[in-house]
């Protein structure tokens, strides 16, 4: 009793509320989606807490629960297909990304490759563009009336050079837009792997290519495996590319799950696909954790060794050409979207017939609401995540709360579409009928991006020593006053850095937006998606450019901010 | 100013006892040092007094009042942290004014409260009252920092930061001043200066001060009384001279100054002289203990290195110099006597010869200077 009273202080109540938030909006939805995969129909857990009738219904649902859905995974060829296709896609993408990144990262880390700076800078483009816009860019490049198709056919080619609406199309888009996720860790691995071993090998007379294959390469293999798993996870959870490009006869987990819920309202089917998605993502995360344990490339201490950069002309030039070609694809894709956005009409020709700003005008008159929605929703999610993350970092750092630490990593693992499905079906009925409201959308965004904010605020909180807070208390301040006057101001840089990241990723967010946003709250991403579905390519292009520019500007502010910090 | 009394203080951290039966009676205006090796529980004791740790059992009284249930922000103990814990986003003046702001906050109406909060977040927006300004400038002048009032704390040297921390604690006119190894981050020379500064301020303000250190020289030169701690227990409390000349355990004898410590057996007592057998040597001592197995403590300066034709000493050994170290005003010899090594200090006067390695010497110790424990 005494203990209970003691924890009933201001900060104790806050901790309780934070736990309540995570349990209600993260843990219960995930549990509930798991249960639904047995009951085959939505269950109302919150309703069961307050109404006896609902409780009885829920119990009846449990009594009639079946393993049909789990059996269906192996008997229903669609589900099994979806799983195998998704795994195969992510596997291919991660392998090819690795193969592409080996020469580029070697070039950046170990050679005097020409245009190194430019190539590095261009590598950030894919990270800025939401994948459904990349997918859409490939449609206008390689589609039936795309300029790439035109060039291909005028050189005597037949049909399409590449069908964007295909497994290959999806894989290629993901490869060209996800490779930077692998590039920088691999550059780091090449930079720190032990150069002295290579020198020893070279001194013994080995040729450089032999040194590379026998010494350099094996040294970076552990790093590469863990990187490949990151790409696997990113590709596996990606919703933007498949939803735009997957043809109806191609089953992929994310797309099937989306179709089950928004097309057929098949709760059980969506639930089992969600459970599978989370299981695979969790397994990959666990594997990746295993591989990267004790191999933290960021925190390698000791003096950075002076690496002798390779300046063999033939090698550096060919590396530069190869890297240039790789980064050219996303660049061309974005240029294409830009040209489309200012084109009067652009048929099957290398260039449009004329240029106009009419599409932008249309957007600023008729679709301004979407831009506003995006900003308002992102701000809402931002404020929520600032509040939650600040307290979470306080509890994680000062009170060593490993439970909260763990809870904030869960959103990193669960694919967006899976989290969305879990939320939709949990908050589908009274007393907490939130599905279809802006509230649940904001909560979903903020939980999904909370890890970014928490990482940033925990870092700052760690750098604030406990004795600074104690000094304030010693001078007479209450814990709350110390928090407002000392901890708060010192946390600001961390919060600011995290904020921009959260804001950007919420604006780019695809899966949650498409799945959960109600019509009156449609953000830009949903509007672009619907325009693409309706084949209104010009306004989709203009809106995409606005979105990318918005992200670019914010990113610029963020970079300026971090530079000012250091 | 208040006396600090600690009764039967014990502290467990998840089952591990780090403080055991601490008893302290610190008088008003006293400069009291807690001395002990790293990890012995000095900081924990101090944190219990400041209220950052809750005692497992025992009472803490400040100024005659039991404070166990008093929140740390209401105890009025000024604390100087080892790391100083200055507020990095505030300038020197704002750091020092912090506790005055808090006092004003507690006394204000809601509207004024907002003003004070604003000032704590940005002192350019809301002005300080004349009273606060004078008080802060006074204390800054006192620690010779008035010229640095508007600097950020990161722009100050270590010694200056130290004085800001001191001023910040003093300005709230605390009942007790607590200092946790305040000098350990300073270089040798600055440490000596700051010792004098702190001691001078303490004497002038007559403020009860508890000073934590693991440096015996610091404790002995500054404090009125010293408590020696080890493994969570207090071994001995006394004035510096008391501790030096009457250490109650070999640990203290060794920790407080350098000592030659040997084990021996008392074989007989005659006329107040105990005869102790140490290996194949015999040592006479005037100190009287009630047991047979004893530790013999001889301070290095009590060993006289005799020249050939010197008078007789009651304790007389022959040995060989192994190492001689010139320490300025003294010369320290490491000497082997039979199977034992002894350290002897001699005052050095210019012109004296320093004995070289291998020199044969005769040593004398008077029985009054041989302590038995
Ligand atoms: N919060 C804590 N939880 C668990 N054990 C602790 C905690 N604080 C201190 N201890 C333990 O209590 C013992 C005493 O620690 P304390 O910090 O009081 O030592 P100290 O005498 O101040 O040492 P130093 O001279 O190194 O500062 C140590 O063994 C330490 O590991
Ligand atoms: Mg300590």
Write up this protein:
- The complex is a heterodimer of chains A (566) and B (373).
- Chain A has 566 residues and is mainly α.
- Chain A has 2 domains: 246 residues, MetI-like (MetI-like fold, Orthogonal Bundle), CATH 1.10.3720.10; 257 residues, MetI-like fold.
- In chain A, 77% of the residues lie in helices and 0% in strands.
- Chain A contains 28 helices and no strands.
- The longest helix of chain A has 34 residues.
- About 2% of the residues of chain A have low confidence.
- With 373 residues, chain B is of the alpha+beta class.
- Chain B has 2 domains: 242 residues, P-loop containing nucleotide triphosphate hydrolases (Rossmann fold, 3-Layer(aba) Sandwich), CATH 3.40.50.300; 110 residues, Beta Barrel (OB fold (Dihydrolipoamide Acetyltransferase, E2P)), CATH 2.40.50.
- Helix content of chain B is 27%, strand content 34%.
- In chain B, the strands form 4 sheets. Chain B has a 6-stranded mixed sheet, sandwiched between helices.
- In chain B, a hairpin with a 2-residue loop joins strand 4 and strand 5.
- In chain B, helix 2 runs antiparallel to helix 3, helix 2 packs across helix 4 and helix 2 packs parallel to helix 5.
- At the A-B interface, helix 24 and helix 25 of A face strand 6, helix 2 and helix 3 of B.
- Bound molecules: adenosine-5'-triphosphate and magnesium ion (MG).
- Adenosine-5'-triphosphate binds next to helix 1 of chain B.
């Amino acid at each position: 009793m005494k203990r209970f009273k003691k924890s009933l202080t201001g900060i104790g109540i806050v901790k309780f509320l934070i736990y309540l938030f995570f349990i209600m909006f993260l843990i219960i939805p995930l549990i509930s989606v798991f249960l639904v995969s047995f009951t085959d129909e939505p269950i109302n857990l919150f309703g069961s807490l307050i109404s006896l009738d609902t409780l009885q219904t829920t119990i009846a649902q449990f009594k009639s629960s079946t393993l049909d859905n789990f059996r269906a995974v192996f008997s229903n060829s669609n589900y099994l297909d979806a799983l195998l296709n998704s795994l195969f896609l992510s596997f291919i993408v991660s392998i090819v990304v690795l193969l592409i990144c080996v020469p580029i990262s070697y070039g950046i880390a170990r050679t005097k490759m020409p245009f190194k700076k430019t190539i590095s800078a261009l590598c950030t483009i894919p990270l800025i563009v939401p994948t459904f816009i990349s997918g859409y860019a490939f449609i206008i490049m390689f589609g039936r009336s795309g300029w790439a198709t035109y060039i291909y056919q005028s050189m005597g080619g037949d049909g399409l050079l590449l069908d964007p609406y295909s497994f290959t199309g999806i894989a290629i888009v993901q490869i060209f837009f996800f490779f930077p996720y692998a590039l920088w860790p691999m550059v780091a691995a090449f930079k720190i792997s032990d150069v002295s071993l290579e020198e020893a090998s070279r001194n013994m007379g080995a040729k450089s290519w032999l040194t590379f294959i026998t010494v350099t390469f094996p040294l970076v293999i552990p790093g590469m495996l863990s990187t490949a798993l990151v790409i696997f996870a990113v590709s596996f959870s990606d919703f933007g590319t498949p939803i735009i490009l997957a043809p109806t006869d191609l089953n992929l987990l994310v797309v099937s799950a989306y179709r089950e819920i928004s097309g057929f309202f098949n709760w059980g089917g969506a639930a089992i696909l969600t459970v599978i998605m989370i299981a695979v993502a969790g397994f990959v995360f666990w594997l990746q954790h295993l591989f990267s344990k004790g191999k933290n490339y960021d925190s390698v201490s000791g003096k950075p060794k002076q690496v002798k950069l390779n300046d063999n002309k033939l090698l550096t030039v060919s590396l530069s050409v190869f890297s240039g070609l790789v980064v050219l694809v996303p660049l061309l894709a974005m240029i294409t979207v830009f040209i489309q956005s200012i084109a009067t009409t652009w048929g099957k020709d290398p260039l449009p017939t004329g240029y106009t700003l009419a599409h932008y005008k249309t957007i600023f008159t008729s679709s301004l609401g979407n831009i506003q929605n995006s900003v308002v929703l992102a701000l809402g999610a931002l404020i929520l995540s600032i509040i939650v993350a600040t307290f979470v970092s306080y509890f994680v750092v000062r009170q060593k709360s490993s439970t909260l630490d763990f809870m904030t990593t869960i959103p990193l693992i669960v694919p967006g579409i899976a989290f969305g499905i879990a939320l939709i079906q949990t908050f589908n009925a009274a007393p907490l009928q939130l599905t279809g409201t802006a509230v649940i959308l904001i909560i979903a965004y903020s939980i999904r991006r909370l890890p970014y904010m928490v990482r940033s605020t925990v870092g700052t909180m760690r750098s604030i020593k406990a004795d600074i807070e104690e000094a304030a208390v010693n001078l007479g301040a209450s814990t709350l006053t110390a928090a407002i006057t000392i901890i708060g101001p010192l946390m600001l840089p961390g919060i600011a850095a995290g904020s921009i990241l959260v804001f950007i990723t919420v604006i780019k967010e695809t899966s949650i937006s498409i799945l959960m946003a109600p019509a009156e709250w449609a953000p830009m991403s949903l509007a672009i998606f619907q325009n693409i579905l309706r084949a209104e390519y010009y306004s989709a292009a203009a809106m995409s450019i606005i979105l990318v520019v918005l992200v670019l500007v914010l990113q610029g502010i963020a970079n300026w901010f971090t530079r000012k910090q250091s | 100013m208040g006396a600090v009394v600690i009764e039967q203080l014990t502290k467990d951290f998840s089952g591990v006892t780090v403080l055991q039966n601490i008893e302290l009676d610190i008088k008003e205006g006293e400069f009291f040092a807690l001395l002990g090796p790293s990890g012995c529980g000095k900081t924990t004791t101090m944190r219990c007094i400041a209220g950052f740790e809750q005692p497992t059992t025992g009472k803490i009284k400040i100024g005659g009042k039991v404070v166990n249930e008093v929140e740390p922000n209401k105890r009025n103990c000024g604390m100087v942290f080892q790391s100083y814990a200055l507020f990095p986003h505030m300038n020197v003046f704002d750091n020092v004014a912090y506790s005055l702001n808090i006092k004003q906050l507690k006394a204000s109406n809601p509207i004024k409260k907002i003003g004070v909060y604003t000032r704590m977040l940005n002192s350019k927006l809301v002005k300080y009252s004349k009273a606060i300004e004078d008080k802060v400038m006074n204390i800054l002048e006192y620690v010779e920092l008035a010229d640095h009032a508007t600097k950020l704390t990161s722009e100050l040297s270590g010694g200056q930061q130290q004085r800001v921390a001191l001023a910040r604690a003093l300005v709230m006119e605390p009942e007790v001043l607590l200092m946790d190894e305040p000098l350990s981050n300073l270089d040798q020379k600055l440490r000596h200066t700051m010792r004098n500064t702190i001691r001078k301020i303490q004497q002038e303000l007559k403020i009860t001060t508890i000073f934590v250190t693991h440096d015996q020289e610091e404790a002995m030169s500054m404090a009125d009384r010293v408590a020696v701690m080890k493994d969570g227990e207090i071994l001995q409390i006394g004035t510096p001279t008391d501790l030096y000349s009457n250490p109650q355990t070999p640990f203290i004898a060794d920790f407080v100054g350098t000592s030659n410590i040997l084990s021996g057996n008392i074989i007989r007592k005659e006329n107040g002289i105990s005869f102790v057998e140490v290996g194949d040597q015999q040592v006479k001592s005037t100190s009287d203990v009630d047991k047979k197995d004893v530790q013999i403590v001889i301070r290095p300066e009590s060993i006289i290195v005799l020249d050939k034709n010197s008078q007789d000493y009651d304790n007389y050994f022959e040995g060989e110099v192994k190492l001689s170290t010139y320490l300025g005003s003294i010369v320290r010899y490491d000497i082997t006597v039979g199977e034992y090594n002894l350290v002897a200090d001699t005052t050095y006067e210019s012109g004296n010869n320093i004995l070289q390695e291998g020199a044969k010497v005769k040593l004398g110790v008077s029985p009054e200077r041989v302590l038995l424990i």
